[in-house]
Amino acid sequence: MTTQATVIAPDLIPEALYPTLNALCAVSIDVAGVIARGALGGALAAQVGENTDGDQQKALDVMADEMFEAALRGGDVRWYASEEQEEALKTSETGRYALAIDPLDGSSNIDVNVSIGTIFSIFDAKEGAEESFLRPASEQIAGGYVLYGPATCLVVSFGNGTQQYVLDPAKREFVLVAEAMQVPTTSKEFAINASNERHWTKPVKAYIDGCLAGKDGPTGMEHNMRWVGSLVAETHRILTRGGVFLYPGDSRPGYENGRLRMVYECAPIAMVIEQAGGKATDGATPILERQADGLHARVPLVFGSAEMVQQVTDQHVMDH
Ligand code: AFP
């Protein structure tokens, strides 16, 4: 089902990583095609099971995971770790890379036709799976996402800025549109699930209250709020026009470290954001300085415009 044709311009992709990126893009084009057909392709949002921590697994979650795993097996990826699978898989005896993936992020938006995405992180492979993935996020050699939105976009960093590609559906090719994305240093927009306010920690509540106070408050400016419920869509908006996203730890059972996963969500998002001049922390500590203690470990996530993320950090320091 997955074409192995050249589907992305090679110019800014390190030569050794090109086959893996091309395979990821070829599957993404097929996934975009399935998503674009919506209900014509069956019940993509039907619950078909549960993943590691009991999160609902939708049909498209499982389908996308199978497509990515099949396309990467036998190539340069030795270890394949997925949100949809308990353990990392050995997909090649000699592959030089360890790839972690959230095959379909934003599943709760599948059946309401809202943008969803794929998030991936690549390390150099070590002998074992654990040592390949449970290491400082700064050791990633690539991180990025595919956004299945009104346009299908690939955003990726190899440690030399953050590039954006747009899919030309007619040609089934990703075309480079930005060589060096830049997150605006500040913005009026914040993104948080406000329904959790009563569960927030003191510094998070103080920061959001400051935004809600508008121009008479500590930020001296009026604010706006966005919450899509799809991490990739929030990231793309912030990369494009700035803002700050918060999924903090809160007092709900199981949410002590928030909801988002370090290895295949927070670490790659942190890489593309920081490589574009933004910041990404757990509220106080840079995400890229942290390492996961388990493949599916969660970590609080605050990222976006550098000045706004710094304000959140300052609030944590003050309230510590
Ligand atoms: P799903 O994949 O289960 O829809 O979760 C999406 C997500 O991990 C992330 O993409 C969103 O930012 C976040 O969850 C939304 O979480 P809430 O539903 O708690 O607001």
UniProtKB/TrEMBL annotation:
SUPFAM superfamilies on file: Carbohydrate phosphatase (SSF56655)
UniProt entry keywords in alphabetical sequence: Carbohydrate metabolism, Cytoplasm, Hydrolase, Magnesium, Metal-binding
EC number(s) stated in the UniProt entry for this protein: 3.1.3.11
Free-text cofactor note: Binds 2 magnesium ions per subunit.
Location of this chain's protein in the cell: Cytoplasm
A Pfam family it matches: FBPase_C
Pathway: Carbohydrate biosynthesis; Calvin cycle
Binding site for substrate: 105-108, 193
PROSITE patterns reported in the protein's UniProt record: FBPASE
Domain Fructose-1-6-bisphosphatase class 1 C-terminal: 183-314
NCBIfam families registered for this protein in UniProt: PRK09293.1-3, PRK09293.1-4
HAMAP family referenced in this protein's UniProt entry, alphabetically: FBPase_class1
Family: Belongs to the FBPase class 1 family.
PANTHER family the record matches: FRUCTOSE-1,6-BISPHOSPHATASE-RELATED (PTHR11556), SEDOHEPTULOSE-1,7-BISPHOSPHATASE, CHLOROPLASTIC (PTHR11556:SF35)
The name this protein goes by in its record: Fructose-1,6-bisphosphatase class 1
